[in-house]
Automatic annotation (TrEMBL):
UniProt protein name: N-acetylmannosamine kinase
Lineage: Bacteria, Bacillati, Bacillota, Clostridia, Eubacteriales
Organism: Hydrogeniiclostridium mannosilyticum
Keywords: DNA-binding, Kinase, Transcription, Transcription regulation, Transferase
Residue ranges occupied by any SIS domain in the UniProt entry: 126-265
Domain of life: Bacteria
């Protein structure tokens, strides 16, 4: 059962609803996980009312239109869908369409929305804080762990004091962060369903005076509250697997921005690395004329 502002709005207007609007309200309360990804026409057809009735219902309870109501439902369930519910919703959304094309188009839309919603001011301020940090702590638990590993790999090429925090247990996290202070920056990465360990680590970093950068999906994310710099990247909250294309693009941009701030130093580092890689044969040399076997 829902328990948020949307529920309150529905209950406040219940006695004034028409028969059709009551059907919509009941369906939303009982099947909010499905409504989050239904069009207005689909919802109307499901409960047996017209699309215009659904739109009027949204405005009746205080939303600008159905898309705004739908967004409210999506925000509400962002951290509540079980894996089984995600699978059911994903199957409904794809329907009879080609799966490969559907996932590509979904990721394209996620990146587009991230571009529209990301604060450039927060982004560049976060990059500046990272570039001037004493020590850098990077933390990402569960499905966000690969993002943290990717970010730390490149930042370790640019900075000396980069710590990729291992998230096996809460005790281990705090042991690794025991020396964090006001000169440091802690980058926390988490997407629905949010990692409790990541949230606690971010709260701890904030209390210790460190600058906190949160890479997450929403202003209502639990990582947002302790963050000094909030970098938002959309993720698909109903997919069977977490779509992390937008967070990865954001991290790519962050790495490039920081590298450009330290361009001369970075050039020297990579020039030295290229010499080492060649000397020790780190990478396989590929002859352009060589045929694949």
């Amino acid at each position: 059962m829902m328990n948020n502002l949307l529920t309150v709005r529905i209950q406040e207007h219940m006695e004034h609803f028409s028969k059709g609007q009551r059907l919509i309200a009941k369906y939303i309360e009982e099947h909010y996980d499905k409504v989050a990804f239904m069009t207005a026409s689909k919802l109307g057809a499901t409960v047996g009312v017209s699309e215009s009735t659904v739109v009027r219902f949204a405005t009746e309870i205080g939303y600008a239109g159905y898309p705004e109501l739908q967004k409210a439902v999506q925000e509400m369930i962002r951290n509540k869908l079980t894996s089984v519910q995600r699978m059911d919703v994903t199957a409904q959304r794809i329907g009879g369409n080609d799966i490969l094309d559907s996932i590509f188009n979904q990721d394209i839309d996620i990146i587009r929305r991230t571009m529209e919603e990301t604060s450039h001011e927060n982004f560049y301020q976060a990059a500046e804080a990272i570039a001037s940090a004493g020590k850098l702590f990077i933390l990402g638990a569960r499905s966000s762990s690969p993002l943290a590993t990717f970010l730390s790999y490149y930042l370790k090429l640019l900075f000396e004091n980069v710590i990729l925090v291992q998230c096996t247990s809460e005790a281990e996290i705090f042991e690794q962060m025991i020396r964090v202070d006001e000169h440091d920056v802690v980058i926390g990465i988490s997407f629905p369903r949010y990692s409790r360990k990541a949230v606690k680590a971010m709260d701890y970093a904030h209390k210790m005076g460190a600058k906190v950068v949160a890479i997450t999906d929403s202003t209502v994310s639990p990582l947002a509250q302790p963050a000094d710099y909030l970098l938002l990247a959309r993720s698909d909250i109903a997919s069977i697997v977490d779509s992390l294309c937008a967070p990865l693009s954001l991290i790519n941009a962050l790495i490039v921005t920081i590298a450009m701030k330290k361009k001369e130093e970075v050039a020297q580092v990579f020039d030295h690395l290229e010499t080492i890689w060649d000397e020790y044969g780190v990478y396989e040399k590929v002859d352009g004329d060589r045929k694949n076997v």
